[in-house]
Amino acid sequence: MFAASLIGGQNYYLSKELEIVAAEIEFGTDGVRGLHPDVINEEIVRNLAAAQVADWYERYDEPPQLFIGGDTRPSTPALIDAAVKGALEAGAHVIEVGTQPTPVIAWLAKRHGVGAIAITASHNPSGENGFKPFAPGGDKYGRDILSNIEKLYWQINFNGRRHYPGGHARQDHGLATQYVDQMVNKLGGSDVLGGKIVVVDGAYGAAHNLAPQLYRGLGAQVIPFACSTRGKINNNVGAAHLNGVKSFLRKLNLATDPNFLGALSFDGDADRVMGVDAAQREINGNHWLHQLAPGQLGIVGTIYTNSGLEEALAVMGVPLYRSGTGDYQVTTELRKRNLRFGGEPSGHIIDTEHLSSGDGLFIGGRMLADLALREMTMRDIFDTVTLWPEDMNNIRVGGNAKALVDSVPFQNGVRAIEARYDGAVNTIVRASGTEQGLVRVWVEGRMQEMVKDAKKRLRSQLAEYMG
Q: Which residues are catalytic?
């Protein structure tokens, strides 16, 4: 738990009244997200924080202690203020840590044995924001507890907040130095990347200063891209928009430099990381898991894990186990099977000996250190596993996307399309768990022509059901 010196001190006060009316909320794959202020706003966050604290009281019967921070969106400071106020009103002790990557907030929660709230919409556009709650010790909450927080939120929304005396809060925006110091030591020390060159794409997000600091601490020459707050978070930069860093790489002329390891690209809150090699080829979570697999008793992927990785792991004698999407489901499967590594193609990678959720900063550092020690670059990572061609399309349908794509007739149509290719094509059509009104259409196949044909048929079926 916190030392007394951390939770004592001055009280925390908001500078403005919160008067926005609360709206309906539901936790998706990773927290609550949506457009600010229409879907998520100060009043909603204030009540969500109070509901998280109320749930804690129900289970532990003691005042919770929380870290609260967030990313670089324009709406984040006001939402952090609202979360602090809601938690305080419900009796929590709070340390507000300011702009911090989500994995740093989770790591602080684990280190101090307390809970946390991250105000972020991760890879979503800058006009959106979100609320990510963490259980004591930095774990993501499961569906049962999230459902209870939703219930308590509505009780608070309609019946008013209950005020408990004794809550305290203070600011400490320098705690991330603990994380950097520990990670430098954990990843091999200040010279493990000595002489190596790394491009870091900070996505104008929460890791814009911390990521370069960490890799310089490991000895690398860091060339920053989108590592400031002068641009819009995730706007044609970052892990979900790799064309930005690819274009930047083409201007640097590093392709023939043997010391250039590659580029690391983070999303807005840095819980995921993607790579780009010297030839501007994408290194995703499938490649990271392949690098982590040697000597393991198994790896956990998700329904989106590429079949090419599964085939490559089988050659190594390492089984692949699949879970649903999201850190919580991957971690649950890892713990169930007593395994260490798992994750998603999007670059969310979990090392259970480090955190129970994704940490792009740590995984990126681990990959760089491994490459340097083996005298390899990201070119070599790309060439060590042959992935099936795949395609992901996001289609905005509005309304109840989940009801549409989860209906039995629609899913039967999807299975019929798959059957045309006799096991050489896999498809997933589902409503997004992080963006409302969005349908994700994913196709992979042994041949690119199969992927194109299946995608065309799926889009046609979706258009038919949309009317």
A: 122
